[in-house]
Input
Amino acid sequence: MTVALIAAFMTLLDISIVNVALPSIQDDLGLSSGGLQWVLSGYALAFGLVLVPAGRFGDAHGRRRLFVLGLGGFTLASTAAGLAENELWLICARLVQGASAGVVNPQVSGLVQQLFTPKERGRPFGALGATIGVSTAIGPLLGGAIIAIAGAETGWRWIFFINVPIGIVAIVLGSRWIPGPSGEQRPRQGIDPLGVVLLGAGVALVLLPLVQERQWHGPITWILIAAGLAMLGLFVAWEVRRRGAAPLVDIGLFRHRSYALGSLLAFAYFAGFTTTFFIFTLFLQNGLRYSPLEAGLAVTPFAVGSASGALLGGRIVNRYGRVLVVTGLGMVIGGLLLVILALEFVSGRGAGFATALPLLCAGIGSGLVISPNQNLTLSEVPVAEAGSAGGVLQTGQRIGSALGIAAIGAVFFNRLAATGGDYGEAFRTGLYVTIGFMALALVAATADVVAGHRAGRRP
Output
């Protein structure tokens, strides 16, 4: 689990660590605005495309093989990204990085299912939740620190190079310590090729216009999203027909209330969660002229709170269940409202200090959401389907993140233009949309709690 969590941290960190390096990358390589968007969003797009097939393949043929293969690809792609000499080179390296990360991550959640009994999974899922929360939140801090140490001109390259020695060690140890395939992981039939194509095309058609929202205008965006949703509908219909014939995803999993509502909760929560740091970094660096390191330090209270909350949540989730998630969502929403309130009274460079305690509160709440929700959502999933089920859950998170960046980013930049460059007002407006996504997650969590109480009262 130690090796798996290190790999998860490294691959998830690369979603957010690049944010603070974008100005340096643009100055060094002369990237266009579209190129910058692809460096940032191409990773998430490739990540989301391979999650479910990689999870299913790990279920079928052993998670160690996929873990080592994905980590090897990620390490090589990180080397290539650090050596990039032009826009196309860096974008291709980032796409391979993202796809490799998508191969690794379903194996991590699948290993928790495989190595621990249901009653034992709280703590490892707590550690995984802490890893997800901290890697996302602390990315700007680590990126800013690396650039400050190595210099603005070449510091961005070390953001990628630092993955190489860690990746090599993780490959060696993972090859030795992660269990090989068991008998129950050998299916009678192979991977569903048509299912892979339908799901991949559907996810790509939905994600692509979302990650390109600022570059593409007109009806093409809505046409592609509609086509993607139609493709996903065909995928569901095909998987239902293949019941009992090794489908890519067992649609019957969604008959479990915990899995269906937990997946919806994760989708809505990550739509708001990921985007918070995107607009906060823009507010601090572009609006208040914080350095990359200062911007990263301002986000640190959330990361500390998230790690603490996730570890605590992993220990007590079996006692409190989904009520713990409802509590965490309430803390996140309350903390973000306090951030808005603090910025109404404090302006200028003091904003980082004014938002520290509210972000700490929101971070603790986030830890109580991500870790317990992952545990509860996968609690009724058979071990033989843990990888594909985890892949579906993470695909929803990636689509939610892309949707959130597109929706909240559009509100942020539209408000910025309407106010003549008032980053504070744009940030506060974007946070209200973030809170709206969190409220949707709260509805899903509350519905699960209420349904659970009703089921408990039945004779």
Q: What stands out?
A: Confidence is low (pLDDT under 50) at residues 183-189. Residues 408 and 433 are 6 Å apart (CA to CA).
